[in-house]
Amino acid sequence: MSSYEDLAENYGHCYGKNELPFGKRPVLLVIDAVAGYLHPDCPLYAPVRFEEARKSIVRTIEACRELRIPVVFSSVCYSTKTGNNGGNWYKYKLPKVLNTYDEGNPFREFAEGCEPRSDEIVVIKQYSSSFFGTCLPSILTGLGCDTLVCCGYSTSGCVRATVLDAMQHGFNPYVVREACGDRHAVVNDNSLFDMQQKFSEVRSEAEVMAMLKANAPKKE
Q1: For the Isochorismatase-like domain, which residue ranges apply (predicted)?
Q2: Identified catalytic residue from 114, 151, 158, 180
């Protein structure tokens, strides 16, 4: 038996094949899709993987707008060069990476095609999860959200942390597989596998598109 088969059997025996329902009031959350991941001068950059994910993110955003499904964006911002509001994560663990998100740094601008419209909500955070220390739960409750469709960067970090918290806040998380990016395929795929097994549904872009169309608000 291969290691993957052994892994699938082990997880299947433990977690089974239960599935979260896809509700009638989905909301798309675009997580930290900023320019730095796509620019070779930025430490966040990794060739190919983030750009391929960006294309899927853009398609997903455009589809939700066409279907009149709310789109919410999250990003990180540190208000001072010292990163005081980033705590020890900024100060000690990842200072050379997190300073990408210093206020005024062009790398923290949204990537091409991932820019919010003037009528769309942007949630600003300082840590991995889009829920931690933000008003995102209240925003989603106000929108009547029952299913949170997630995409963005990076799969093992801010996407995974946000998806975990979405489950813990009662918003069924669905992850668009192609619309997530990480620095290495192994890390990306392992994170998607783990999220699927434990606290979300990871689906292809085509599958999510079909579910969004089936649950989009009816046009008047």
Answers
A1: 27-206
A2: 158
